[in-house]
Amino acid sequence: MRMKNKAVVTGNGVLLEIADIYKTFGDNRVVEGVSFDVKAGEIFGLIGPNGAGKTTTIRMIMDIIKPDAGRINVFGEALKERAKDSIGYLPEERGLYKKLSVVQSLQYIAALKGVPEKQAGQRAGELLKQVGLAGHSNKKIEELSRGMSQLVQFLTTIIHEPRLMILDEPFANLDPVNTELLKEIIRGLRGEGRSIILSTHRMNEIEELCDRVFMINRGRGVLYGELNEIKSRYRRNSVFLEYEGELGDVEGATRKQDERGAAELVLDEGITPQHVLEQLVRRGVTVNRYEVSTPPLHDIFLQVVGEADE
Amino acid sequence: MNKTWLILKHEFVTTITRKGFIVMAVLFPLIGLAAIGIFLIVQAASGPAAEAEIPRIGYVDEAGGFPDYEGDYGRIVLVPYTTAGEATAAMLDGDIGEYFVIPADYLQTGVVTRYLTQKELEMPGETYGAIRSFLLENLLRGQAGPEVIERVQNPLGVRTVRLDEAGAPATDQGGFQAFLLPMVFGFLLVITIGSSSGYLLQGLGDEKENRIMEILLSSVSTMQLLIGKVLGLGAAGLIQMVFWLLSSLFMVRLASSTIGGFFSGIDVPQNVVLLGIVYYILGYLLFAVVMAGIGAVTANPKEGSQMSVLLILPAILPFYVAIIYLRDHPDHVIGTIMTLFPITAPMSVFVRMGLSEIPVWELAASISILVLSIVGGLWLAAKTFRVFLLMYGKTPKFGEILRLLRQS
Q1: Do B390 and A65 touch (CB under 8 A)?
Q2: Fewer Cβ close by (within 10 Å): the C or N end of chain A?
Q3: What is the mean pLDDT of the segment spanning A206-233?
Q4: Environment class of residue B41 by beta-carbon count within 10 Å: exposed (0-12), middle (13-18) or buried (19+)?
Q5: Residue B260 and residue B190 in one domain
Q6: What is the pLDDT of residue A138?
Q7: What pLDDT digit, counting tens, does each position of A53-72 carry?
């Protein structure tokens, strides 16, 4: 999806900077010393278990609630009301006016984000066409299916062509077709140099889309960095292979799983994947697939949260 | 476009297109028009027939000296009978509705006896007046002139003239008619304020329940949201109030020209209209900011409505106090207290306007206190918005509300 472009802040490449923020409700400290930044043109994963402080952090970014301490800079300056016009926010708790039509909903939210009425109408038409909802533009929100109304909600997040988007569980309640459609749109937005904060429990989607991630647990940051770097940091030093022939004992490696011509080999200390591959080739094993195994983010998530809870 | 204006426009349009709002707006004028119409229909239907249904009352003069000479006994015609038997027969035949006997010792006792076939709670005033006039005229005939007899019949007619400070007849002469209209306006004012701020409460509750609030707050500030909502709904309520005022003027004129009588004496003074608008605006703003606070705190519209009753009840208190007490003691200090207390001020000013003159200092103080209360209420409502608007689930307890507000 092509968006009419606005100038996107580059500078040092950082659109959003969060430095050591705290938030307490009553006796409950919900966010404690959280710091991260989001760069232009990246999809940034904000992950963590339920109640970890993700939504509170997002609400502080949106200036819906104020941090007790710390600093939030958006587009190179301290958070100001006007910055909201350049941020798109899809909250986890979805909501639209049930009695308004689809196009009225889009126009109203766009107007609140500073888009002139005529431009908002035109843009609403374009977006609805691209997600296949053009025929529903005059239907009331209450007449739409859950998935459709979620698509409309997503469109309200991007109708004003924001530089930064915060999407909280954007794929919930969507069927596979619409999930793919949304992913395509999100990738397209990144391609235009816009930044997206993606908060979701679905680790496969984080792995598929995100460049960097920040994991929060019990209000504190527990993991932060490039996704690839994190995955290699938590690599189990094993390889996965699909083969034909007799595998037998492999020197310097232990077979962890071996079923129907597929096996995972855990390598001994100091043994490289190349060494094992050479050994297999020498022994005449036909290797159909060979890859250095990295743990899924899901496992890293469980491990990190488990360690933090101990 | 200014975001407060956008929210104002959205709330205004949403409210005035609600079925409930339209019904409320047209219901009051429709009831008035229907009442006038029904009166005229009944009057037209009963007019010619009334001649045929003139009540006929028989009498038997056993004392002597009470002949009928066709005096004015209101609508009643008196028919003489020689004996009680004749009168009873005539009554049973339906020639007369009832009869009375003037006994031989009437001059000593002053008692006559009525005979009738129907049950009644008490003697109708019209019948009593007719018999009394008949007896008086006969008693005084030949002993006094017609003017004296007339004065004895109606010895007292009072015309009260209220003078202004210059000693000239005042424009506002007071009385029940002058009391009625401000009272009705006051009541409508509180209904309008209550319904407009009720819409605010309902809207906030719905937005909380539908989870739209977070979307709105990610686009506008809490103050923009609060002011936009309050003014949008207030403008809708003001339109309703102005519509009611104009339709009241129209109906009073219509009733005056068609029904006349009591309605001819009703006037709508300009100060009632002016103060109506001022107190509507101030009263509404106060109620709206308080309702906004309630709407932010409560978990759903139902709980919000229950809590708002605590605000509406004191608002209409002056209406009852006026009927029970202030009517006879218009300058009592309780009137002043209710005028100064912001919640009771709008209704209090209206009911007192019909009863007596409200000192200018009281009005100035009342308006000042209302304005200060609105500013304070707005500050508190904005704070409440920020703390509670995104809290879903159950309504926090009062202590928790205070604690969280203190901490914020």
Answers
A1: yes
A2: C
A3: 89
A4: exposed
A5: yes
A6: 92
A7: 998 999 999 888 889 999 99
Q: Which of B212, B386, B390 sits opposite A96 (nearest CB)?
A: B212
A113/B212 touch (CB, cutoff 8 Å), yes or no: no
> Is any Cβ of chain A less than 8 angstroms from the Cβ of B215?
yes
Examine the pLDDT at A308 and tell me if it is beyond 70: no
What total of structural domains would you count in chain B? Answer: 2
Give the nearest chain B residue to A162 (CA atoms). B219
Whole-number Å distance between alpha carbons of B283 and B295: 18
> Given this chain, do its domains A14-231 and A236-293 carry the same CATH topology?
no
In-domain check, residue B334: yes
Region of A252 (left: φ > 0; alpha: ψ -120 to 50; beta: rest) is left
Are B344 and B297 in a shared domain? yes
B316 and B229, same domain (yes or no): yes
Kind and range of the H or E element at A309? Answer: helix A297-309
Give A23's DSSP letter.
E
For B383, name the nearest residue in chain A, comparing CA atoms only.
A65
Task: Give the least confident one: A73-87, A282-296, B93-107, B250-264.
Answer: B250-264
For residue B376, give how far its alpha carbon lies from the nearest alpha carbon of chain A (Å). Answer: 21
Contacts of B217 in chain A (CB under 8 A): 62, 64
- DSSP letter (8 states) at residue B120: -
Are the Cβ atoms of A26 and B407 closer than 8 angstroms?
Answer: yes
Domain stops at, among B124, B153, B182: B153
Residue ranges making up the domain that contains B209 = 3-32+172-407
Long-range residue pairs from B188-192, CB within 8 A, at least 24 positions apart, any chain: B188/B28, B188/B241, B188/B244, B189/B241, B189/B276, B189/B279, B189/B280, B189/B283, B189/B346, B189/B347, B189/B350, B190/B283, B190/B312, B190/B315, B190/B316, B190/B319, B190/B346, B190/B347, B192/B237, B192/B240, B192/B241, B192/B244, B192/B280, B192/B284
**Of B6, B211, B220, which is closest to A94 when you measure between CB atoms?**
B211
The arithmetic mean of pLDDT across residues B49-56, rounded, is 63
For residue A2, the model assigns a pLDDT of: 42
B392, closest residue in chain A (CA to CA) = A93
CATH entry 1.20.120.790 includes domain A14-231: no
Q: What digits encode the pLDDT tens for the residues B6-32?
A: 999 998 998 888 888 888 888 878 887
Find chain B residues with C-beta within 8 A of A81's C-beta. Answer: 221
Alpha carbon A121 to its chain centroid, in Å, reads 29
- Report for A207-211, B15-19, B151-155, B194-198: range of highest mean pLDDT: A207-211
- B210 touches A: beta carbon within 8 Å: yes
Written out in words, the top-level CATH class of the domain with range A236-293 is alpha beta
Q: Which residues from A are below 8 Å from B210, CB to CB? A: 95-98
Lowest mean pLDDT among A276-280, B144-148, B322-326, B402-406: B402-406
Tally C-beta pairs within 8 A across A and B.
65
pTM over 0.80: no
B273 touches chain A (CB under 8 A): no
Cα–Cα dist A53/A216, whole Å: 7
8 Å CB contact of B218 and A26: no
Verify whether the Cβ–Cβ distance B386 to A65 is below 8 Å.
yes
The number of C-alpha atoms within 13 Å of A90 and in the hemisphere containing its C-beta is 28
From B206's Cα to the closest Cα of chain A, the distance in A is: 9
Nearest CA in chain A to B222: A64
- Among B153, B180, B206, the domain boundary falls at B153
Question: How confident is the model at residue A165, as a pLDDT?
Answer: 95
Closest chain B residue to A25 measured between Cα atoms?
B404
B104, B241: one domain? no
Average pLDDT over residues B83-96: 92
